Amino acid sequence: MPEGPSILLMKEDLLPFVGKTVTEAGGNAPFDKEPLIGQTLHEIRTFGKQTYLVFDKLAIRIHLLMFGSYGIDEQTKPDKSLRLSLFFKKGSLYFYTCSVKSVDLEFLHTIDWEADIMSDLWNPKKAETKLKSKPEMMVCDALMNQDIFSGVGNIIKNEVLFRIGVQPESLVGNLPAKKLKELIAESRNYSFDFLEWKREFILKKKWLVHTKTVCPKCGEKLVKKQTGLGKRRSFYCEKDQKLY
């Protein structure tokens, strides 16, 4: 599943279409495409793993899920995985194997934009308050909670926890105050490192523990385990990461 940094890169690719008017719309997403025709794309907003295409009277919410993708100016053939196609006077957009929904513009006002880990509006104090209200939550679940860290995915989770020396099954309420602040700060720091490495096509080379077998610090074998309520893969070192 693409994480927040990858969604920002998608946004950058889509920005040339801002200000353009839809001439044709298609795809098998379960909503009426007709109202999109004649509407202008005014803005592209991202919230964690979600992208919002903001038009005159509505917005389209796109979530790439596990295997979603997008294309620009393609020569396409009939494709059952095509959820949405948008044609403009010059250029076209295609979204495949993803969740595409139409939402009212008012819905955008209900989103807590301060929870987006990569947004200029990111509010670490609010994240800290939310974490302190869930002391029994494992830190692996906390990092993957999109209401707290919107945009954080499994890669970021594993790498952040290794950076701060915390095992994924540690409880939020057991973390010392300093560690809790490190958790919050590094979730944002690593996300921007992720973005830069993704741009340079070196992201996988920079992974320290995600999908790895040996700890880069001590050389001991890493633990690979499904952790938390979501049973997502965690990679961690029992020696260099403490269980709180």
Automatic annotation (TrEMBL):
Transmembrane segments: none annotated. Residues 2-91 form the Formamidopyrimidine-DNA glycosylase catalytic domain. GO terms for biological process: base-excision repair. It catalyses: Hydrolysis of DNA containing ring-opened 7-methylguanine residues, releasing 2,6-diamino-4-hydroxy-5-(N-methyl)formamidopyrimidine. The keyword Lyase applies. GO terms for molecular function: damaged DNA binding; DNA-(apurinic or apyrimidinic site) endonuclease activity; lyase activity; oxidized purine nucleobase lesion DNA N-glycosylase activity; zinc ion binding. Belongs to the FPG family. This is Endonuclease. The lineage of its organism: Bacteria, Pseudomonadati, Bacteroidota, Flavobacteriia, Flavobacteriales.
